[in-house]
TrEMBL record:
It holds the Pfam family CAP. CDD domains: CAP_bacterial. It comes from the Bacteria. InterPro entries: CAP_dom, CAP_sf. This is CAP domain-containing protein. Residues 67-195 form the SCP domain. SUPFAM superfamilies: PR-1-like (SSF55797).
């Protein structure tokens, strides 16, 4: 004797329930009119990173690096040739330093290189001042990697000079910038950290 499945039996299957919900969401999404003043056929925005499902949104990645930096600063670190560094206070995100860091990350991608010197010959102090930072810039870390958050900061801690910059006890502010390179580029993501007080 063959047992017959009812519609209730199908609804109990997790995969079927998921597909039904997914279908209803997709159908419902097409019923929502675009917001007033929004052209649904407009060109993509400059925030194309947000569409990349393999990476968290830009702001989230920057926040992860700031948080990981503060966790690293909260513990004593061995900065190799610079010796042990005591735990130091947290740094606070600063908009002007973030603008300077972001501009330099874009510049690094355009140059296809890693350098603390910008394509216009500027250093991190000049870039911070140009972005409107009113304090004193005290250091910059750069990287080109696929790493995020904790792993990126760990890479800087494991490098003597980067560790010293990150653990600078004078630093009170931080700006983190990044630029996602085009697929096939030499480096995947360019990261810049600028510290100041």
């Amino acid at each position: 004797m063959t047992s017959r499945r009812t519609s209730k039996d199908f609804a109990r299957l997790p995969g079927v329930t998921f597909l039904i919900i997914l279908f209803l969401l997709m159908v419902g999404a097409g019923c929502v009119p675009p917001a007033e003043g929004v052209d649904p056929l407009s060109e993509p925005t400059d925030n194309w990173e947000f569409e990349d499902l393999d990476r968290p949104p830009l702001d989230a990645r920057i926040a992860q690096v700031v948080e990981a930096t503060n966790r690293a600063r909260a513990r004593a670190q061995d900065c190799g040739v610079h010796g042990p560094m005591e735990a130091v206070g947290p740094v606070e995100a600063d908009e002007a330093l973030e603008m300077a860091a972001t501009a330099h990350a874009h510049d690094l991608a355009a140059m296809g290189a890693l350098s603390h010197t910008g394509s216009d010959g500027s250093d991190f102090v000049e870039r911070a001042e140009r972005a409107g930072f009113e304090g004193q810039p005290v250091g910059e870390n750069i990287a080109a990697t696929f790493r995020l958050g904790e792993a990126l900061v760990r890479g800087w801690i494991d490098s003597d000079d980067h560790c010293r910059v990150l653990m600078n006890p004078d630093a009170r502010f931080i700006g983190v910038g990044l630029f996602d390179a085009e697929p096939g580029a030499r480096f995947s993501t360019y990261w810049v950290q600028v510290f100041g007080y």
